[in-house]
Amino acid sequence: MMSRIFILVLSLTIFAGQASAQSVLIPSPPQIAGSSWVLMDPLSGRVIMEHNSDERLPPASLTKMMTAYIVERELDEGRIAMTDMVPISVKAWRTEGSRTFVREGTTVPVETLLKGVIVQSGNDASVALAEYIAGSESAFVDIMNQQAKALGMENTRFQNATGLPAENHYSTAKDMAILAQAIIEDYPENYPLYAEKHFTYNNIRQPNRNTLLWRDDSVDGLKTGHTEEAGYCLVASAKRDQTRLIATVMGTSSADARAQEVQKMLNYGFRYYETERLFRGGQELVESRVWGGEQDQVSVGMPEDVFVTIPRGSREQLESVVDLDSVIKAPIKVGDELGRVKVTLDGETLVDEPVLALTDVQEGGLFKRLWDAIKLFFVQLF
Questions:
Q1: With bands split at pLDDT 50, 70 and 90, how would you rate the model's confidence at 137?
Q2: For 180-227, what is each residue's pLDDT tens digit?
Q3: SS (H, E, C) the chain
Q4: How far apart are CA 23 and CA 310, in angstroms?
Q5: What is the model's pLDDT at position 286?
Q6: In this prediction, what percent of the chain has a pLDDT beyond 70?
Q7: How far apart are CA 189 and CA 49, in angstroms?
Q8: Are strands 337-345 and 348-357 parallel, antiparallel or unpaired?
Q9: How far apart are CA 156 and CA 42, in angstroms?
Q10: Does 64 participate in catalysis according to the annotation?
Q11: What pTM does this model have?
Q12: Sequence-ordered list of residues with C-beta below 8 angstroms from that of 188, at least 6 positions apart, any chain
């Protein structure tokens, strides 16, 4: 078995004498009145609290988060534009349920329809965009399911673009939190749409059904849902200081109940947890000895920023170690894996990720390689 070199990462200001520091006390999560729920930090991916979060349930209009996500992807990739004029079909015009009140035979800009989907939960706007992008709603549903799989939504299956009741149309609280994370991180330029409180089209002004936008200034999205089968559902996100949380609840008894239950989850998460960036992507953590190279050292670090969600006030109790290969030989290219970094808190592993070479090291000349080989022989001997 290859021997390893263990290096304490001093950038976290962690020392052996802190191991006896007193643990931060966290109360049990609040009781939530719903069928399933989850509270997640999108930066670290940590789930703070959950119940039946993988249970397959009808998502109602939470479905429209995926409809909007695909529209945003098409915009980002340049296949459509916000100013494109979308023809409104008879099918879109006749779609039942919540509506933007578009009229058959007219054309409506993509931007207007996207706002109709997000703010008004318009089923007619959803069908119109689905038909514009994929030619038909059924073809658009194929894209929705492919996208769900690509995002890791393992317990989701869509049958339409609206969330209207349909057999084998289901998702989970956790999958909807994953989708919310993608919406926030992948297309931040469009995310402010989810915080709009009202939208007017065809002289009809409708409010966003996410009442937390009025109750809590830190809440800036995302989507509500309701059918008789699904109950009242809500995916909400909020940011306070440097911490963002996503809360999903499914199967509550009323519109007011879904807002109250999500508010309880958010308050609990922000009161007792915080997000910390431990390492910056591309920043050197340590230097490691290189044998047989033009240079004797290589910079080692993380390819991307690394975040953790921890109990408030517990940063000083984190323990971090870089575990490097004991013998690293040239040539080395940027991105080569040279070991792993592990971060723990009270014995729980929070981070276990590879560390990579941040610089190239070319192979040295013949004399340099021979000389290093001799030195390495004696280093390993003793």
A1: very high
A2: 999 999 999 999 999 999 999 999 999 999 999 999 999 999 999 999
A3: CCCEEEEECHHHCCCHHHHHCCCCCCCCCCCCCCCEEEEECCCCCCEEEEECCCCCECCHHHHHHHHHHHHHHHHHCCCCCCCCEEECCHHHHHCCCCCCCCCCCCEEEHHHHHHHHHCCCCHHHHHHHHHHHHCCHHHHHHHHHHHHHHCCCCCCECCCCCCCCCCCCEECHHHHHHHHHHHHHHCCCCHHHHHCCEEEECCEEEECCCCHHHHCCCEEEEEEEEECCCEEEEEEEEEECCEEEEEEEEEECCHHHHHHHHHHHHHHHHHHEEEEEEECCCCEEEEEECECECCCEEEEECCCCEEEEEECCCHHHCEEEEEEECCCECCECCCCEEEEEEEEECCEEEEEEEEEECCCECECCHHHHHHHHHHHHHHHHC
A4: 12
A5: 87
A6: 92
A7: 29
A8: antiparallel
A9: 19
A10: yes
A11: 0.88
A12: none
- Check 98, 121, 237, 288 and give the catalytic one: 121
For 61, phi then psi, to 5°, come to: -75, 0
HSE, CB side, 13 Å, CA atoms: give it for residue 106. 13
Find the catalytic residue in 36, 61, 237, 314: 61
Active-site position among 36, 44, 53, 64 = 64
First and final CA of the chain: distance in angstroms? 18
Q: How many CB atoms lie within 10 A of CB 162?
A: 28
Cis peptide before 331 (omega within 30 of 0): yes
Closest CA to 197 of 211, 180, 183, 187: 211
Closest CA to 127 of 158, 94, 151: 94
Give the max Cα distance, the chain. Answer: 84
- Asked if 121 is an active-site residue, the reply is yes
Edge-first strand order for the sheet with 297-301 is: 4-8, 319-325, 337-345, 348-357, 297-301, 284-289
Give yes or no for residue 11 having a pLDDT over 50: no
Average pLDDT over residues 140-167: 98
What's the token pair of residue 91? 């099918």
Burial grade of 260 (CB within 10 A; 0-12, 13-18, 19 or more): middle
Which residues is 351 bridged to in the sheet? 343
